[in-house]
Amino acid sequence: MKNGLRLGIDLGGTLIKTALVDHTGRIMCIKKIKTSFKPRHLAERIHKTIRPWFKKSILGTGIGVAGDIDSQKGVVRFSPNLSWKNIPLKKYFQQTGFPEPLFFENDASCAAWGAYHIELKQSSKNLVVLTLGTGVGGGLILNGRLYTGRNGSAGELGHITIDPKGRPCGCGNRGCLETYMGGRYLVEAGQKELSRMNKKSCAFLTPKKLYTDAQKGQKYACQIWEQAGTALGIACADFINIFNPDTLLLCGGVAAASPVFLPFARKEINQRTFLSSRKSVQITVSSKNHHLGVIGAALLV
Amino acid sequence: MKNGLRLGIDLGGTLIKTALVDHTGRIMCIKKIKTSFKPRHLAERIHKTIRPWFKKSILGTGIGVAGDIDSQKGVVRFSPNLSWKNIPLKKYFQQTGFPEPLFFENDASCAAWGAYHIELKQSSKNLVVLTLGTGVGGGLILNGRLYTGRNGSAGELGHITIDPKGRPCGCGNRGCLETYMGGRYLVEAGQKELSRMNKKSCAFLTPKKLYTDAQKGQKYACQIWEQAGTALGIACADFINIFNPDTLLLCGGVAAASPVFLPFARKEINQRTFLSSRKSVQITVSSKNHHLGVIGAALLV
Fold first, then answer.
1. I want to staple B178 with a disulfide (CB 3.0 to 4.6 A). Which of A26, A197, B158, B253 is the partner?
2. Among candidates A76, A124, A119, which has minimal Cα distance to A291?
3. Reported ipTM
4. CB contact under 8 A, B78 and A275
5. CA–CA separation, B180 vs B232, rounded Å?
6. What is each CA distance from B119 to A121, B112, B177, B258, B298, in whole angstroms?
7. B234 touches chain A (CB under 8 A)
8. What residue in A sits closest to B240 (Cα-Cα)?
9. Mean pLDDT by 10 residues, chain B (301 residues)
10. CA-based nearest distance A32→chain B, Å
């Protein structure tokens, strides 16, 4: 990879992270901004915030977006988190004057690309990444290249069907992995479990609270994580049988709760995978969790 | 691809197909032999049968095997259909004097490689192939290359979990796609359905008979294909969301029954996939079904 600075932008539903990153993936400067939903306004606001950075020589800009992206055209086809549909993001970023060339990818693909470079040092040529956050995203590095499929929509690993008759998912399917492991659904299930046990519902239930409650041994929370971990294990077994990867990496905020869900996932994986693929895969939780997305976006350049 | 003849061998549980194939994938000569299970004996028998072919100049030999293959070493780690475990096939084929270099792959990967070249003329860079036979195999062409994963075990698409609590599968998992769509399981389910309906069991039930019975409107057979098609559709929806492929190709003997199962599969696919991936995938049944495996094996050279 050519020496020099790249600009990375990670557009999430709540926060925008933007960073200047060198060719090794090291962050030189980083800023966080609250997300605004008007795309042209958003481009101008980011530009204004990081204007001082533009004194430096920058090789280009990589942008990761939560949603279904047309990378070639730089169009966001659909982003439920940003409430966007067919937004010509590239045009707005060009008009605002961001350093060109511009690259666009799904945010989970960016996280996978970031993990491949800075966490695995390109040693793992076949890498499956699951981003566990409000939703569940997926990124694929296959034969050492980012795999995005025919038109950039590949890697929807969070929407693999676990139970064909399961809960409806935001994507239109039922019983997706996301309906078990997505932060939003974890909280919903937690509230339901509390009310089923005739306990007071918790107005401020979060995945983090579910995690600490499970660590304290609270039954309702333990049950939620057992269900989630089991579903994750069934999905991971599928990914291991399909991809025979070197590494299966979990990242995103909810991955922090892995001590309470990963044992259940491993049990399923052990029962449902082919021996040679099972023996050769490393299942790990990212240790560089926080900035993989923005670093990966920058390294698209 | 370099002009010249290649030798292809497709080692199945019942039959061995061997063919001389030119660089376009055209078959110049073909022979079928009954499978014997002693690997050294088998290599000698194939060699003896096709000895006249060796007068021609042959660029090398490609061998497809039903099972889990170490392509690098030419070792069959495990083949349930051939009852083989850790068989150093490359050694036997070298000692017998087959034209070198020798290449080894899983048979479904060979079928995918064959389909990519002769059926899709390399136009479909991201191709998911399902081989519907006694079992259900899978082959993946991603970014125009055969994808086999870390150690050659990738593409076990037949063992994606449809129902986590479903029927036990030969692979050790439960509720795999194969337990719905594999010929062996289709027949088992057919027998069970007949007995449930208090009908005489059929000693010679085959997937072909199940197909003709369904075409005649026999209820037990229609139900079996509905279940199978539904399971296939759930699995295909997963593959479409994961791979965003150009083409999803069904081949193998059981694919001939697609008129009775594919409508059920399409219904599930329509309900369970992301729009941009659904719109861009072609779902087709191979028209060159019979020899994809042996042609793909030859074209490994």
1. B158
2. A119
3. 0.94
4. yes
5. 8
6. 38, 10, 25, 18, 15
7. yes
8. A154
9. 91 90 94 87 92 93 92 90 90 94 95 94 93 93 95 94 94 94 94 83 87 95 97 98 97 95 98 94 88 95 93
10. 31
